[in-house]
Every structure is written in structure tokens, then in C-alpha cells.
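[step 3/7] fold_predict: job queued, chain A
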Amino acid sequence: MSAPAPPRPRTPDDPPAARASAPTPPWWRSLLAPVGSGVSVLLAGAAVGSVVQGGAWFGYALAAVAVVVLVGTLLLRTKPWLVAPGQLVALLLLVTPLFTGSAVFAVVPGPDAFGELGTLLSGAGDQIHTGIPPVPASPEILLLLTLAFGVLTIAVFGIAVTAESPAAAGVPLLCVFAVPTALDEQLLPWWSAVAAAAGFGVLLLVRGERLRQLPGGAAITALAVVGALLLGSAATMVGTAGRFDAGASGGADGSIGLNPFTSLRGQLNRPEPRDLFSVDGLEQPTYMRALTLQRYVPQQGWVAGRPLPGVGLAGPLPPSTSGPSTEATAQVRNLGFRDYWLPLFGDPVSVNGPSATDWSYDAAGGIAYANRPQQEDQWTERLRLPTPSADALRAASGRSGVDPSYLDTSGVDNRVTAIARQVTASAPTPFDKAMALNEYFTGPNSQFTYNLQTAPGAGGDALVEFLTRGRTGYCEQFASAMAVMLRTVGVPARVAVGFTAGQQGPDGRTISTSDAHAWVEAWFPGYGWQTFDPTPLTDGRTVEPQYVQQARAEAGGANGQDAQEAPPPPPAPDSAAPTPGAAPTPEPAPGEDAAPEPVARSSGVLPVVLAVALALVVIALVLAGPTVLRRRQTRRRTGLARAGGAGAAGAAWAEILAVSRDHGVAARRGDTVRTTAERMITGHELEGRGRDSLVELGRQVEASWYGGRLPEPGMLDPLVADVRSAITARGVPLGSRLVPPSVRPSGDDDAASRSGVTGVLLGAWDRVRRLVRSRLPGRTAPAENADETPATGQAPASDDGASRSGSHRETPAR
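[step 4/7] structure written:
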């Protein structure tokens, strides 16, 4: 090797070493990438608006994203390895006070808070599996969305900001579309594709070192948004059926679905009612039934089960009632209803219009159903409207012909039974019991009031609360309570869900979301299921059958109303507990085993959600780990180089070698500093300032190692900054950004030539092996800064000239 030239005096023609440090970028540039990651998540998440009612969900999503971004930005400046775990803890501290009432110190979750969160998440699962989009923004759904947006932001932040790989962060952003496409068969609205394209563009553009590319990048992103707009208007790619809905009010948000009470709440709480049906030919107002609820589950309420196997909807239909009736024909035009259920009036005789292969009719339940949500444009129904008299229903006796499951009261609180028996104490027949309970809720002396804003009950205790203290609710509470109470006094009962008769206009009746309703149907031998409505509506929408009007007219006067006084609740505090020796739960009725089992509301879902969140955090840590290690190396080396003195030259040169290796040009074993510098100049096509700075840095390294001339403070870091900027200007491969090859210490030639995951694993093994060997007797621990000195035995013993007694030779690169 040729001996290096001695250090020459610095001249005005040597600007790289004499130049002052590059100006520090403005502080706000460091915030662009974190803020951009949050904005991209919110834009991509705009698709959620097509499957969740209202805009309340966005506020919760915004709060989750803001907290995660803020915590991540703060931790990134101090302990990068704590970013993902810290963000997860912050997210948990956010949802605890928002969705629970038992937090420790108002924000810290305890066992009770975890139980509440688990119950809400379990309820969210029920609503997702049984609801029809757009689902109401219930607390369960809002909690799920808050956690989902928070965890997604953690993943995107880890990949785009911590690991500096914004392009790869587009993969978790695709997860946003998994939720709406899973909930809705219809394709997503066009604006969801536009927002997602804009979000990904923001993710790529909003980076401090790329601001000079902002005009061109913004133009490309704008073209992508236009392309997404055109694609969204014509294509059928996102979703499972149908096409993109270009209307502002798309979506079958009038559906009942499989979680009917949740849907009822959403429809009745809509800011603006939406028309669902236009009905002609039906002069007598009557309720429009969508489905009936047979099963009452303690702690959960009435649940929808799978219908019994039925007959095809085409042709004559088996009757579900008997006795006197009138016939009518109704022409129904569908204005926006899409569901598993086809709403029908009264007792249908025949239905023409819907597809005969898609729809079936269950006479026992009185419902028409399909295997998947559908929207029929119109249909014509011939129907019977039962007209039994009050006396005829009083005379009906016996229980033959009814499924015993309609009398099931398993798990009903004893206080409910006591109230029902007290209300019906003077009622001799099943019909009189039904009327007594109906008047208990709707009669002149009733202590119950109708209020649309009342929160729904959540089980047996809520039912007791409604009957004894609250006494305020809407159709869900009233129908649920009366049906349960009828069963406790021996009258078969079920809950029907559908719509009231709507509003009569010059062109027929119009039924809207504001007409969504629930009522009670009681069974009488020889007559079948008859309607009772215990909800005290005051807007004239209640339809009173002939037998109800007759019974009220017969009762009349004060004597008829005395029995309707609300009785005080039984004082026994222990009556809520099941009595010893109570009858076991009856076996399911024939056909009931086909119904899906109710999901128990427990905290068992929370561990699963936390496990998924933890898995995502671990993935983010794994992806960001190599980048965090590389940043630590960079900060340590640049700090040593900036300080000057012993070790500065080695640290500066080690950092440049690492930058070059990360960008595809690795130093070869045995190459000298000058040879390596020439190799980097050629490999990276350096010229101008970058090339001059690299040459000067090589001179400074040689002068420090073999000339005894230690760099002064601030001399080397501008050179390192210039060379790094020149090398990185050409971009970095995605694989090298996620797993920088330089994070693995150099080993033998085979190991040194490996990169990616294999290189990281080999590097970790090398570190463990060296650590173990250094602890063995007779072994010498490796130098602390071994990676900052040449790798071969030709390196000097120190930077202070201790090895200068040897011949001056060109220093190997590593």
C-alpha cells in the first residue's frame, strides 16, 4: 500500500471542513410526518361513515388519532422504543373515562373498568353480527371504532414515522376497508376511494426532507384522486355486491336486521325521518310486521332467532290466525328498505312480486325472510285482518296448538312476576289479563311515560328498574315488559317488530323511519296471535284493534280503572335471587335449536381485543426496531464526531460507512479509506459538494488515525451531514428502510454480505456470542466502540497517536 500524504494546511479552497454546520430545519418540519400519519388514517377511515349512522363516530376517531400521534411524537424525541407501548397505554387511558364509570383516579382502568369495556365490546360484536348497516352509533360501536382507529394509528405511526417507511404504511391503511366491506354487501360510496387516495398521498408527501418535492408530489396525488373518483363512479370493485352509490343518502338505514331494538333506536333517533314504504289500497290502518321475537334471555332481553323452515313466498300461504276477519289488498312500493325480512300486514294470504326463490314464509312466526339482506322494489299482498270480539277472546281457553317456548320465563326476576300477578289479580281470563297489563302501561292512571331519549335496558335488572323506578321508555321497554309479564301469568306472548300504519296522504300511506315500532302479540286458542300495544304514544300512531276498544268501553267508569293503579314494588329485597327448588330451565321447543345461541355479555372479548392490539404493537415494534437501533447509532456517532478529539474520526467514518451500506454500496474487507471513498463516489454517483466532503472526511480520518491530528469540535459533523445528504438524495430501498443492513455488526464475508431479516438475526447471534465469550474466564471484553474503529488488525490502537510508531500506511476502511 502507498503511504498517505501528510495532512496539508487548510486553505480557502477547502470549504467542506471549514463550513459551518448546515442550518437547523424549522421545528415544525419534524411534526409533518406524525401529523401526516394521523391525517392519512382519518381520510382512509372516511369509509366508516357509510356503515355507521351520524357523525358522532368521527369525534371519537379524531380523539384517538390525536392522542396516539401526540404521545408518539413526544416519545419519539426521547425513547423511540417506547413509542408503540406508550401509545397503547395512552389509548387505554383515553377510552376508560369515555366509556366506563369505574376508573381509578378517573382515567386508570381497574378490574371493574375492564369488565365494562369487555361488556361493551361483546355488545359491539353482537351488533356487527346481527345489524344491518348503517348501524346506529351506540356506545358499543363507538368504543370499537375508537380502539380500531387508535390501534391503526399506532401501526401507521410505527411504520411511517418511526421506521420512516411511509409507502409500507399503506398496507395497514387497507384494513380500514375491511370493516365496511364486511358489514355491507353494497359497494362503498365513491368518496371513500377518493379520501383513501388523498390520505395515502398525504402520507407520502408530508415529510420534512421531501418538501422540495411537494409541488410535483401534490400534482401526482391530485391525479390519483381524480382517478379514484372516476373509478369509484364506474367500477364495482370494493364490496361484495351492487355498485358504488353516488347518492348522498345511500344505505338501507331503515332496516330492522337481526338486532331489532338497536335498529329501532337508530331509526327513531334520526335527525330527519326517511320514507321507507308507500302503501296503496289499505284503508284500515294496521301494523306492518317485519319479524317476531320468541326468546327472552336474562341479562340481554329479547333476541332474534333463526326462523323455522318455511314455504316459498309464491302461491297461497298457510294462515297464522283463525276466526272472523276482513280481507284487503295492499300494494307496497319500497322507497329505501333492505333487510332479511319482508314487512307484511296482518295475516298474509299471498304475496306477489318478490323473488320466489329468495324469500320464504314462516307461518308460526308470521314472517317472510331471506338468507341475506335484499331490497324488493314493490309487492302486492292479499291479507286477512282478524276481527274477533272481546267476548270471543275471553271465551278462548286452553293452550293446545301453541309452542311451549312462548311461555318460557326462565331467569325472569321474581319482582317482575310479583308485579304482573298484582296487576292481573282481578282478571279472570287470559284476555282480561292482557287488557289489565295493557291498561297498566297506557291507561289514564298509568304512572308510565313515553320518552324517545330514554336509554335502553340491558337485562333483567333493567326490566325491574323500568317497572319500579324509571317508568319511562319507548316501544322497546314497553313491549319487552308486557310480553314478559304476560308469560309470568300464563299467557303465551311474543314481541313483534316493524312499523305503525304511517301517515295517510292523498296518494296513500307513507311509512317512514319514525314509524318504526315494537308491540306485543298474545296467543288465544282458536284465534291465534292477536295484537296489543302497551306503548303510550301520544301522536295518534297507535292502532287499537276492535277487541281492545270493546274491552275499554265495557270497563268504563272508575271501577274499571281502579285495577290499573300502579302497585308498589314488593319490598322483599332478596326476591331478585332465584328461589330454592325453582323449576329447571325447560328444554328448547322443536325448531328452537336452529336459532343461534345468544352471546353472553362478559369481559371475555376484552382479552381477545387486547391480544390483537398487543400483536399489532409487537408487529410495529418489530418493524420499527431496526430503524430505532439505526437511529441510536447515528445519534451516538454524530455526537462523538461533533465533540471532536479522540474517537471523533472513527465515529464519523463508521457513520458514513453505515449510510453507504444502507443505500447499497458496502465497503469491502481490506479496502483502505481512500479506496472505499472512491468506491462510494462511483457507486452513489457523488459529485460537487458531496464528493468534496467525502474526500475531505477521508483526509481527516487518516490524519487522526496516523497523523496524530485530532479533529476540533464541530469540524467533522458538517462533512458527515454533506455526505449523508448526497448519498440519501437518490432515495432508499423499502427493504433497507425497514431493516437497515448496517444494524448488524460486520462479521465474516458471508455474513457481511447478507442483509434483511437474515442479516439482523445473524447480527443478533453475533452480539450474543461475543457477550458470552467476553464473560468467560480468560476472555477480554470487546472494545466499547469496536464498531467505530477499523475492523481488521491494521487499525491503530487508539486515536491519540499511540500506534504511530508503526509505518505509515494507508488505513483499511474497516
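[step 5/7] annotate
The radius of gyration is 37 Å.
The chain has a mean pLDDT of 74.
exit 0
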